[in-house]
Amino acid sequence: MKYAAILAFACLLLADASAALADSATPLVEVVLTQEQQSRLTPDEVLRLLDAGNERFTSGALTTRDHSRKVRAAAEGQFPKAMILSCIDSRIPVEDVFDRGIGDVFVARVAGNFENTDILGSMEYACKVSGAKLVLVLGHEHCGAIKSAIDGAVLGNITAMLENIQPAVDSVSSDYEGPKTSDNPEFVHLVAERNVLLTMENIRRRSPILKAMEDEGEIRIVGALYEMRTGRVAFLD
Ligand SMILES: [Zn+2]
Q: What pTM did the predictor assign?
């Protein structure tokens, strides 16, 4: 009797679980973006898609995806919509932040989200060769790399890496009146924002290919800051 009761209870739980799955978490049968679908998208539409995806992320309404199906569907090629340059911070799962799945976005990551030759080459590949319509430089609040640059941290290869962020620190410092330390959240925020803007400038200056694509309206180069507490991505004008 006791065993039968436990079995019945387990069956009830399973039935509930499958009903809940059917109601709210049915894996979305998504198709991987085709080259034709990609080519029809405008840079502004891609930006709106990312913004809408971020709204779903912040409201806890992430799309449930059938990843194994998409892995197989994407095996033949890829036509992602955007190229995102992010910091390596583990608190920012880039695809989730924009509610994107397999084959949707290129992501390059380096501590402090700055550009260099390899990242510019990757961006040119993403846009010129693979047809991505948007380059997004995604900085974030409470960034350890930004704080380390402000503090002038010296350690191994980190020293040389932080030199890439130093121009943003110097730029904000030149007309900032308050404490210029990593303990000052306002200063850290301003440097993170300036670092995104300078990175966008550097992309345009150092990549004639991307600059020309932007001038022709084929792509947009935009910047944003990820808000740690809310998960919201605030796009910079
Ligand atoms: Zn960071």
A: 0.83
